[in-house]
């Protein structure tokens, strides 16, 4: 089960770390930014920096995934497993950014965020794919490299992806703006039209013999 935090001033409990509550309050201050793309980008950047993931290279993230053998992407990770992985990740960041990274606070904050995004049912578990999607989406890397990495997580050994697996990836990806209150600006939570559109587009190209499927 997930840990609850107690506010000793109000004598109430909540699911969020006090620092996470402060972060969400600061994110809500950005709601007056008019254009949704700019507003979402500003929220993501503030979140990224608060979690110190702007310091995390994709190579380091992948090394941590490999260290903890996170290969079965549909496998569920419980809180203790998530904390172990996050501790390894932030300990590496602390080695090169000791003045910026507080390992315990960063682990607590990132775990809190991941559970809020991917564990809305309060089960204390999320999929390995969800964990990777969250970390890679906010790490320091070129956008194209992130796309390639995430696609490989749902592609078969031959490099192809079916509709079900692409749907899983898009579902996990859209949860990030959803949790920030921005999902309506990006087509809503229903990913089926996007999946269908992707495969219709590929089918047309395939028919012209220019491409033989989603392949990387």
Automatic annotation (TrEMBL):
Specify the taxonomic lineage.
Eukaryota, Metazoa, Chordata, Craniata, Vertebrata
| GO-annotated cellular components | sarcolemma; synapse
Q: Where is the WW domain?
A: 1-20
Q: What name does the UniProt record give this protein?
A: Dystrophin
Question: InterPro entries of this UniProt entry?
Answer: EF-hand-dom_pair, EF-hand_dom_typ1, EF-hand_dom_typ2, KCMF1/Dystrophin, WW_dom
Origin species, per record, is Poecilia reticulata
Q: Tell me the Gene Ontology biological-process terms attached to this UniProt entry.
A: muscle cell development; neuron development; regulation of muscle system process; skeletal muscle tissue development; synaptic signaling
């Amino acid at each position: 089960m997930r840990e609850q935090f107690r506010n000793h001033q109000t004598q109430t409990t909540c699911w969020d770390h006090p620092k996470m509550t402060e972060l969400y309050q600061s994110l809500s201050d950005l709601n007056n930014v008019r254009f949704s793309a700019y507003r979402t980008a500003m929220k993501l950047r503030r979140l990224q920096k608060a979690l110190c993931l702007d310091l995390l290279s994709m190579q380091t993230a992948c090394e941590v995934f490999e260290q903890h053998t996170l290969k079965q992407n549909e496998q569920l990770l419980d809180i203790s497993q998530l904390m172990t992985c996050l501790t390894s990740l932030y300990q590496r960041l602390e080695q090169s950014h000791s003045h910026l990274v507080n390992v315990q606070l960063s682990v607590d904050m990132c775990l809190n965020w991941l559970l809020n995004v991917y564990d809305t049912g309060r089960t204390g578990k999320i999929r390995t794919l969800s964990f990777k999607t969250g970390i890679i989406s906010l790490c320091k890397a070129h956008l194209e490299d992130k796309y390639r990495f995430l696609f490989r997580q749902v592609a078969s050994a031959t490099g192809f992806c079916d509709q079900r697996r692409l749907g899983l990836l898009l579902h996990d990806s859209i949860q990030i703006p959803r949790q920030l209150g921005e999902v309506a600006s990006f087509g809503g939570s229903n990913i089926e039209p996007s999946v269908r559109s992707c495969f219709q587009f590929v089918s047309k190209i395939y028919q012209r013999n220019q491409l033989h499927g989603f392949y990387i």
